[in-house]
## 1
Amino acid sequence: MMLWVGTSWKMNGTRAFARDYARALAGLDVASLGDIQPFIIPSFTAIDVAASELEGTRILVGAQNAAWEDAGAWTGEVSIPQAIDAGATLIEMGHSERREYFGETDETVNLKIKAALRHGAIPLVCFGEPAEVFEAGETLPFITAQINAALDGIADTSRVLLAYEPIWAIGEHGRPPRREDLVRTFAALAERYGDRVEAILYGGSVNHDNNKDILGIPGVGGLFIGRSAWTAEGYIRNLELAAEAVRE
Ligand code: PGA
């Protein structure tokens, strides 16, 4: 089974940063990683730089968001064809930061999945519950409602990547998950969606200490990493750990 291990840099990094980072990755012997599919998701401004450095490797480059319409009067938006033109093959959507600050909803995620698939891009669909939902033991109904709404009316979701990103675990105020926080959730996600999608990733305070343990949880099909992959060295270490997890 292929494990997807990637990072979003969020709103970080100049084009020079992207060039150096991607160059460090391009020098990596990806074949030695085995069944790992690496991907990086820079800001829009750096997609082309990263993609040209990584041309000819099997490391994918993505966009952190994109519009569901192809073109037109949508000031400030970037369309999926434009993101693809810059070098993206993967489109992230539904991240909790976009939901909280920029009005992303399950409905817009649904439109964006359809648009990505129409253009042959891979949708990376993030979902996850806030702390109070987790503490109330309501995680599963909350996230299955998000996923069902996002996938609504899409007959073939086999190219979709799902990423479970509990809000309580994300970012500098997040708490790294314990194994027992994720086991039941991933068992249920795998049972309900495992056959319908490409893979189900975990994201939120992944670091070098918990990387392999999380990958060892049944149903986890990869990692979506923020801070611990914001340097090339940090990301490469995560890739190496994931490769070890596959071998063990
Ligand atoms: P983090 O970010 O790894 O820095 O917690 C994860 C995410 O938001 O995807």
## 2
Amino acid sequence: MAAAKTKTVWFCKACGNESPKWMGRCPACGEWNTMVEETVATGKKSGTQSVSVPGAGQKPMPLSEIDSTREQRISLNNAEVDRILGGGLVEGSLVLIGGEPGIGKSTLSLQIPLHCPNLKTLYVTGEESAGQVKLRAARIGGDDSNCMIYSETLMENIIAEARAMMPDLMIVDSVQTMFSTGVESSPGSVTQIKETAAMLLRLAKETGIPVILIGHITKEGSIAGPKILEHIVDVVLQFEGDNRGTYRLLRSIKNRFGSTSELAVFEMTGKGLREVSNPSEMLVPMHEDGLSGVAVSAMLDGTRPFLIEVQALVSSAAYGTPQRSATGFDARRLNMLLAVLEKRAGFKLSVKDVFLNMAGGLKVSDPACDLAVVAAVLSSNFDFAVQSDICFAGEVGLSGEIRPVAQADRRITEASRLGYKRIYISSYTSLDMEHEGIEVVKVADIPALCRSLFKG
Ligand code: TYD
Ligand code: MG
């Protein structure tokens, strides 16, 4: 066989964009210093081949005649994972589980087959030896009778093995360790990662085997990450949160078969990941009544309402420029809220340091948290505690008005269910139902909130 012709190209590690020359800034995603040099074969066989899907070569047909019963869902015996997948794993789908090292990707993906002895599983490990997987399985417990462990990193062998075995489920840990001989560059490079994913996608679509693929993300993004795969795969689940704590959050950021932004909460125990079906338990830690600087927000993550504790610390600035720091909340939004408090409600916060923290390592993007942030900041500033049975749901506008939020009824119902006695919402909210057992207080702006909250 004649040696394949090769050429050198540059890829962006962040988005996978290809460029014939090096550039300081990727023109596609705008990231700096992400271009890496790789060798690819020229000619017909390029690094990233087009993916053939079943039905290729068929004629166009009317939508009404297409059989949709093909979408079979497999339950993974894990209510939280099934839920964020949209009701189970779809046959022939490629699911990417991303997250930082040590967060629990391998644990979750091994736990699935151990808890589903009815599924014949092929677990491909490129990262740990079969012995290490065995040790982990012993920790997790469960039934390992139908789980095959395959320690291999060469994609051609893995695909051949999967086609021979035809498992009900296949897991590949991790995309960064796999390589194909069809691509010149080393494992973990952009071309290898794309090729690995394309080969697995072809396998999944042609055989109907669902494939769970694991991908590492590093904080610095120093290795080519799952980001470049997001458009190839069907579902992207991402672990977030703090891997030093015991709670792990798994979020669906893309799902061709269900809704996105769904969140599942797990607790890392000595025996693997435990499902936390009531996340408010962990997000509203128990504490003494009368603590200032804490307020509870009735927020919505995906489609699920839950309550989360917002903590603020306001203190006199030690240096000329006050510090502002936010964990789990957008720092620019915090600055905006502080400016609104200063300009529209007359609180002198420009000479104060403000620190904000969301409980549980959760990253919050729901604007309904604004009101709880404002309440926590004011509570800390005046050293006046917000009663622990009060919660908040409202967005704060630039003129200090409190704006209504989506699905207020569901938030109120959840707050009431968890024993909250009073909830502050916007005056402009229209409610569809009566709420018993909880006092719904409508406020129009920040001064009205302060009058109601800090009277007495
Ligand atoms: P792991 O699944 O190996 O992470 P990843 O594959 O995302 O890199 O996570 C392992 C971490 O979880 C490690 O710090 C050990 C801990 N762990 C437990 O606390 N309990 C357990 O039962 C298991 C299997 C792991
Ligand atoms: Mg791992």
